[in-house]
Amino acid sequence: MDLSSAVTVTVSTLRRRPADLIPFYFLGMAVPVIARLGLFVALAGVYLHFEVTGRLADARAALAELELTPPDSQDPEAVQAWAESVAPALEPLASPTALLLITAGTVATIVLAVLAYAAVSAGQMSAVVARLRSERGLTAGIAGVRDRWLTFLGLYVAEVLLWIGVFLLGSAAVAVGFAVNPFVGAAAALAVLLVGFVALLVVRVLFAFAPSAVVVDDANVVGSLSGAAGFVRSNPADAAAYLVVAIGVLVAISSVASGLAFLGGGAIVALVSAVVVAPALDLLKTVLYGSHRGAVDPVGPTDARLRDQFVGGVRRGWRELLAFVRRTPGLHALTVVVGVGFGALGWLAVDPFVGAVTTSIESRLVGHVAPAAALNFFGNNWSVAIATSLSGVALGVPALSSIAFNGLALGATAALEENMLALLAFVAPHGILEIPALFVSGALGVHLGIVSWRTLRGRSSRAAFADALENAFWVLVSLGLLLAVAGLIEGFVSPYYWRPFL
Asked: Which residues does residue 354 pair with via DSSP β-bridges, in sequence order?
């Protein structure tokens, strides 16, 4: 299949039943939320350690006797003197046990991230291949997570080892060359750059198509690499075309991201990359490889207009949102209790610093550019809602931890705010949409955790789990629309309307 036909199939597959594929790419956005649970547990352990040993009380007492407001940063000597006066008060917190806990939490976070990424990737590629065979993607993706996560982990480890090997061999060759004489070393460096670039390019091309080979051929690590190598040898033009497209897309995204990041809109670029670009590239390379193997049966173009699809999706999303809220009042009450409870905890935790350390909503609004801010608020908040909801598949705990973390941060920020009335006035207009939407995302995450637990225990089927993921997709579509409206209000109304009165 040529590249043009493959692109057509990719677009058609994305447009037909996006709810049967995109949830696994939503799940990819949830990996950091799942992984950071290790660090959260470690930090909770550090806090308990400080409380039990009395170290935190000693630090609070010492800090209460000091002037915590830092001097003008234009006077380096005054800043240094202030830092030297504060440092002794923090010495009780310099505990080997705390350092050990944080180190263990960091290692656990990295391990969780790698394992979760391998499992999610296995599900994504399994769902992609199923959609290209006109089968249900979510059911195949759930099965793929269980059956293929170890193979995908092996692929990622193998690629990292190969990259490290190429760099080590190149470094050794250059070192030997310079040991002989500088001219040989310079020649060796040039040769290593050229050969190394080609070697790394070959590695990347092989490992780009290997994930597709794992699912299409039901292969292991060695078999998938063999299949990818066979595809590249037989179809060098298709492999090169995919590589050009992939690099072009990544360069375009980087350029747009740089431009929007300057305006504060980087969050929307990351969101589009995760839920549109990533599945499109996975579909494209799998169409090319699957056609080479004669193992896919792509769907034809859809007759529906994009406008009709969008309107129909909005209506269905709204119905699913209302139905979910009505049938899960207990889960919503739980997320509200967790959010408000940790908000109060954050408020109390920073009490020793109130007056000495301040935050200011008015200062944060300096340089506010309404259109860019609205776009960034929407992208950031919808990303948080998606990640919170889909992280719940890890038995619900990460979703609750996300609500707790946001509550803690908001409580601490509010306690340190120097103009509370201005903060309340700013939050009120968009908060009536944004805050409930985030609570719904937390409840949705707990719901997915319950479903995943029942499936893991054999009390529910994979089809039921797939139904829950599909419903979650439509709920998140509606939450996205609510957060888009909230973003517009936060960008264009919230920063301004109260200024004549306060």
From this structure: 357
